[in-house]
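I am writing to request your help with a piece of structural work I have in hand. I am sending you one protein, given as its amino acid sequence and as whole-number tokens for its backbone shapes. Kindly check, if you would, that the fold set down in the tokens agrees with what the sequence suggests. You will find the record immediately after this paragraph:
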Amino acid sequence: MAGFLCLAVIAASTATALHRPALRDQSMVAVNQKPATVVVNTLVERAELKPGSDILQSSASGAGVQTIQNGDGSVVTKVTPLDRPQDGPVILTGARAIGQSAQMAHLPIPELLEPGKYGDMPVIGPDGRRPVDAYARPWSGARGTRVAIVVGGLGVSQTGTQYALRTLPEGVTLAFAASGNSLQRWLQEARRGNHEVLLQIPFEPFGYPSTDPGPHTLVTADGTTQNIDDLHWALGRITNYTGVMNFMGSRFLSDQDAIEPVLQDIAGRGILFLDDGTSAQSLTGGVSRSLGVPFAQADMVVDQKLSPDVIMARLDEVERIARRKGAAIAVASAFEVSVDAIAAWIGEVERRGVEIVPVSALAEH
């Protein structure tokens, strides 16, 4: 057949031949005519990849598929149509690219940026690609016991940020305070270190302003227009993040009229929302699900008491939760004692078969 065949790549769970987990999302791809051999990049969920076509494997007879591991860690698939002629296009299963290559992780993807009043903000690309997928840190995709650890407050203290970046294993998700300093520089260092990144948004707590999260706090009394403006100020501070999480916010997150338009804006940007789990009255879960926002909620803050023994004990409790539920999310701040305890604990828990995964791996997509 002359010309190119446009093959619909559909989400499916037929990655058995490649020993991969079930995949999702749809996209289009063009493949050269038979009987030519076509080599394309395989877009495997939670794997480091080069840009390329969204092809995984053939679900039709008459096409052979072989995966090839490159020296740089990327994966390609050789699609070789067999001699037997085919009637119509070959249907292939695949998924959108998850994550950036290590060499490019510190650079934003231009198609996923929207110019804003305060700086470039994340946006869903013209082809439907989402920042939550594009900037996610790859992981194994296995369905064993998984723990995501998010360390926040980065960017506020230069020495504290340096120490956390130097000490924490790459599996830890790093959350930068929107009010921090030199954020883009720290962001690039974090991404070069293979960390997934979140942005912390300050929300109004009960007791505000006596308890003050900082400048550009989203406040219920300010109204939607001002709150969206403050949200955009925060979103424009850095790039390459998979989502946002709250900094404080017990008052704001419990008010549906306040939180719904904020999450509506986030929904249109293709980023996740992580609730740190500190407010029992938070409405973020239900509102996020109704709006289609990728959502996750932390199971425990592990360093409310800055004691190594207490932090380790709480991390052990997180492990018990993960073994019971399959996965759990822990949140901490970038205090030196917290960073040291987390780094030590990860070394122990990985030997017990627990995988440390990025928070995007545990979000409801």
